[in-house]
Amino acid sequence: MEQQRHELLSDVADLVASVLEDHGVAASLAEQCGAALADRLAAHWGGQLINIPKDYRFKLAARDLLIYEEFTGNNHADLARKYDMTVRGIYKIIERARKRDLDYRQPKLF
């Protein structure tokens, strides 16, 4: 009877092999690396309950940065249409981004 690897570990091994092959690594070596990583994950994290985040905040921050960089001072409505948001939502993003930018450029002295 053939033993099968857990679906997550199998997917990780396949993904690593695919990425390495895309970067010019030989298929046999890429497959070995994928299997080695899956083995390491199983040995290190095996038995743990893991919740993998969708990275929503990171994606949101990247989108907000794009909006801030595209902001010209008077294109709120255009940005709202482009990003499928309300104009008020664009104002909030610009306000938050300006505050972060100011905090970065001008650190608190006291």
Automatic annotation (TrEMBL):
<dbReference type="InterPro" id="IPR014875">
    <property type="entry name" value="Mor_transcription_activator"/>
</dbReference>
<dbReference type="Pfam" id="PF08765">
    <property type="entry name" value="Mor"/>
</dbReference>
<protein>
    <recommendedName>
        <fullName>Mor transcription activator domain-containing protein</fullName>
    </recommendedName>
</protein>
<feature type="domain" description="Mor transcription activator">
    <location>
        <begin position="4"/>
        <end position="109"/>
    </location>
</feature>
<dbReference type="InterPro" id="IPR052411">
    <property type="entry name" value="c-mor_Regulatory_Protein"/>
</dbReference>
<dbReference type="InterPro" id="IPR009057">
    <property type="entry name" value="Homeodomain-like_sf"/>
</dbReference>
